[in-house]
From TrEMBL:
<keyword id="KW-0411">Iron-sulfur</keyword>
<dbReference type="InterPro" id="IPR005760">
    <property type="entry name" value="A/G_AdeGlyc_MutY"/>
</dbReference>
<dbReference type="Pfam" id="PF14815">
    <property type="entry name" value="NUDIX_4"/>
</dbReference>
<dbReference type="InterPro" id="IPR011257">
    <property type="entry name" value="DNA_glycosylase"/>
</dbReference>
<dbReference type="Pfam" id="PF00633">
    <property type="entry name" value="HHH"/>
</dbReference>
<keyword id="KW-0227">DNA damage</keyword>
<dbReference type="GO" id="GO:0000701">
    <property type="term" value="F:purine-specific mismatch base pair DNA N-glycosylase activity"/>
</dbReference>
<dbReference type="InterPro" id="IPR003651">
    <property type="entry name" value="Endonuclease3_FeS-loop_motif"/>
</dbReference>
<dbReference type="InterPro" id="IPR003265">
    <property type="entry name" value="HhH-GPD_domain"/>
</dbReference>
<dbReference type="InterPro" id="IPR015797">
    <property type="entry name" value="NUDIX_hydrolase-like_dom_sf"/>
</dbReference>
<comment type="function">
    <text>Adenine glycosylase active on G-A mispairs. MutY also corrects error-prone DNA synthesis past GO lesions which are due to the oxidatively damaged form of guanine: 7,8-dihydro-8-oxoguanine (8-oxo-dGTP).</text>
</comment>
<keyword id="KW-0004">4Fe-4S</keyword>
<comment type="similarity">
    <text>Belongs to the Nth/MutY family.</text>
</comment>
<dbReference type="InterPro" id="IPR000445">
    <property type="entry name" value="HhH_motif"/>
</dbReference>
<keyword id="KW-0479">Metal-binding</keyword>
<dbReference type="Pfam" id="PF10576">
    <property type="entry name" value="EndIII_4Fe-2S"/>
</dbReference>
<dbReference type="GO" id="GO:0051539">
    <property type="term" value="F:4 iron, 4 sulfur cluster binding"/>
</dbReference>
Length: 352
């Protein structure tokens, strides 16, 4: 059905569209704040199709927030493996502990209190407060930015301080406070399915008569986003040592960089690609093995692993040694460790 601006206001059009087009997603069958919070954290930086199996895995492993709070961090990270942005998993675990210890296992029921939880920002607090507790606060995510920017013809950058402030104000004006639960889910769904980033189907869009971008041929130029920071290139050389007992070495990443608390092989990082001679020279000292260790390259071409602001040019070097590793772990146990997907892929293909 085609709606005109005169017949129905923006929020009512969104609600009507949502009633007809919403997807059957597992977290839409509940108002449990634990499950809504879990889904929202997972879907940050992640597509629904990718996130859904992880949601099922977590609900199966941790049916209640108490189960997640009491879990070992390595178990949480292992289940998260492949979703990326691992700080989300660590914050998830920390917040579960806070909800149990401070709130007795019951999530705060207001936007303001939800904001105090670790890893919960404006968007997530708004989503939980509106969906679970029907609080009249609008959500503003990438989908919402796109719909509002195009419909109202706003060219303020969505990732600028001014843009963030202006779009939040606009979201408040546009929302349907009496049915905020469905409206918030509806406008996000509308952006995901109808007002898509590339080649949206504007001909069948129920908002097209009032859409400034559509009526002024500006769909392709909105929303506006400031350019990202320059991509940093890093060169990772993983030293996969194998001793006579089929043991290897792994270490846990610490500090504030990428992949905190995940495991990896001993790493030789360089500012450029390195040759076999350089690795052969450095490996014995780094690994604590004999000088006659045999080194060979596992992957002939660099594996380029792309993160948001950096590209990791990665090579895996196999170091075969007669030295029995003091802190070695059996190669057969490698799949049990929570590791970045880059290393998980290597483990899956590496055969002794």
């Amino acid at each position: 059905m085609h709606f005109t601006e005169k017949e129905m206001v923006f929020s009512n059009i969104i609600l009507a569209w949502y009633g007809t087009n919403k997807r059957a997603l597992p977290w839409r069958n509940t108002l449990d704040p634990y499950r809504i919070w879990l889904s929202e954290i997972m879907l940050q930086q992640t597509r629904v199709a990718q996130g859904t199996p992880y949601y099922h895995k977590f609900i199966s492993a941790f049916p209640k927030v108490e189960d997640l709070a009491n879990a070992d961090e390595e178990v949480v990270l292992k289940l998260w493996q492949g979703l990326g942005y691992y700080s989300r998993a660590r914050n998830l675990h920390a917040t579960a502990k806070i909800v149990v210890e401070k709130y007795g296992g019951t999530f705060p029921n207001t936007y303001k209190e939800l904001l105090t939880l670790k890893g919960v920002g404006d968007y997530t607090a708004s989503a939980i407060a509106s969906i679970c507790f029907n609080e009249a606060v609008p959500v503003v995510d990438g989908n919402v930015y796109r719909v509002l920017s195009r419909y109202y013809g706003i060219d303020l950058p969505i990732n600028s301080p001014e843009g963030i402030k202006e779009f939040k104000k606009l979201a408040v004006k546009a929302m349907a406070p009496k049915n905020i639960r469905d409206y918030n889910q509806g406008i996000m769904e509308f952006g995901a399915l109808q007002c898509t980033p590339q080649k949206p189907d504007c001909q069948t869009c129920p908002l097209n008569s009032g859409c400034i971008a559509y009526n002024n041929d500006r769909i392709g130029s909105l929303p506006v986003k400031l350019k990202k920071a320059k991509v940093k290139h890093r060169y990772f050389n993983y030293l996969v040592v194998v001793d006579a007992n089929n043991q290897t070495l792994v270490q846990q990443r610490t500090g504030n960089g990428i992949w905190q608390q995940l495991y990896e092989f001993p790493l030789l990082e360089s500012d450029r690609e390195v040759a076999l001679t350089e690795v052969s020279k450095s490996a014995p000292e780094i690994l604590g093995v004999k000088e006659d260790a045999e080194v060979y390259l596992f992957n002939d071409k660099n594996i380029v692993h792309k993160l948001s602001h950096q590209h990791l040019h990665t090579k895996f070097w196999i170091v075969s040694t007669t030295t029995i590793l003091e802190n070695g772990v059996p190669l057969s146990t490698l799949p049990e460790y929570p590791v970045p997907v880059l290393i998980a892929d290597f483990i899956n293909t590496f055969k002794i």
